[in-house]
Amino acid sequence: MSEPDFLSLAAQTFQLADKAATPEDRTTLLTMAQAWLDLAIEEEQITKVVREADVAFEIRASDATRGAPLWAMDLSTPETN
Predict the structure, then answer these.
(1) Which one-letter DSSP state was computed for residue 67?
(2) Dihedral sign, CA of 74, 75, 80, 81?
(3) Given CB 3.0 to 4.6 Å as the disulfide criterion, which of 21, 35, 56, 58 pairs with 78?
(4) How far is CA 20 from the centre of its chain?
């Protein structure tokens, strides 16, 4: 199963809202579209945090493989190249 594309789902839901038969349906669809947009933003933020964590882990792992003892490493701020 592939990952959902929240932005695409939001766009599709906005299109459906434009064609809604009643104002209530339009309101419901717009609420749904906003929820898809919120999920897209949340996914982007989570992805950013995971990437940053991956980079920090790679830096710390490379320090460990160079022979530095774990207690001697500064784990507070990762180096950037």
Answers:
(1) T
(2) positive
(3) 56
(4) 30
By CB atoms closer than 10 A (0-12, 13-18, 19+), residue 13 is buried
Residue-wise pLDDT tens digits, 18-35: 999 999 999 999 999 999
Output the pTM of the full model.
0.65
Q: Give me the residue spans of the domains in the chain.
A: 6-68
Distance CA 55, CA 66 (A): 17
Distance CA 12, CA 35 (A): 13
CA distance to 16, 21, 26, 36, 64, per residue, from 76 (Å): 48, 56, 49, 35, 15
pLDDT digits (tens, 9 = 90+) for 40-65: 999 999 999 999 998 888 776 666 56
